[in-house]
């Protein structure tokens, strides 16, 4: 009888079996989900992760400092439209797929860029492309000048 391992349990097992000195070993909850607070004993650094094991932006603090992951963990149970779109894109594992960029609180960043093509454009608060803002590789549109016509990103 083989048990189906969660992604956290699989990463944990692979790290333990690697027998590498100082390797980071993901910490899992009893039910197999990622523990919101992850720490690397060898370096002394701690950070927060979401339910997919992705590092929560701005939680990687200086050595010896502990981020408050519980507040962030509760906030992430209801995903925003941007965060859902981002997670779906990442889960598809399709090479070159556009992955939306979200703010820490889950809203769309006004400037979106496709890392594979180099194109960037501006979006409104719903993630819809603002007409006339698409810029080719090496160019970045100034989203501030377009956002005045489309409301604010509060």
From TrEMBL:
Naturally occurring in which organism (per UniProt): Branchiostoma floridae
Pfam families named among the record's database cross-references: Thyroglobulin_1 (PF00086)
Record keywords, A-Z: Disulfide bond, Repeat, Secreted
InterPro entries linked: Dev_reg/Prot_inhib (IPR051950), Thyroglobulin_1 (IPR000716), Thyroglobulin_1_sf (IPR036857)
Subcellular localization, as worded in the UniProt entry: Secreted
Keyword Cytoplasm annotated: no
Species classification: Eukaryota, Metazoa, Chordata, Cephalochordata, Leptocardii
PANTHER family: NIDOGEN-2, SECRETED MODULAR CALCIUM-BINDING PROTEIN
Cellular component terms per the entry's GO annotation: extracellular region
Domain (Thyroglobulin type-1) ranges: 5-69, 79-143
S-S bonds: 39-46, 113-120
UniProt key word Nucleus: no
Domain of life (superkingdom): Eukaryota
Principal place of residence: secreted
Protein's name in the database: Thyroglobulin type-1 domain-containing protein
């Amino acid at each position: 009888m083989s048990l189906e391992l969660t992604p956290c349990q699989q990463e944990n097992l692979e790290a333990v079996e690697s027998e590498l000195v100082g390797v980071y070993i993901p910490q899992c909850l009893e039910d197999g989900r990622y523990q919101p607070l992850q720490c690397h004993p060898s370096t002394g650094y701690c950070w927060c992760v979401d339910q997919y094991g992705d590092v929560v932006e701005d939680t990687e603090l200086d050595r010896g400092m502990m981020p408050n992951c519980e507040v962030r963990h509760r906030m992430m149970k209801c995903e925003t439209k941007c965060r859902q779109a981002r997670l779906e894109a990442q889960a598809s594992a399709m090479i070159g797929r556009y992955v939306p960029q979200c703010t820490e609180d889950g809203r769309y960043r006004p400037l979106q860029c496709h890392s594979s093509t180099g194109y960037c454009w501006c979006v409104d608060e719903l993630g819809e492309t603002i007409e006339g803002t698409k810029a080719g590789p090496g160019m970045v549109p100034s989203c501030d000048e377009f956002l005045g016509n489309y409301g604010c990103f509060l």
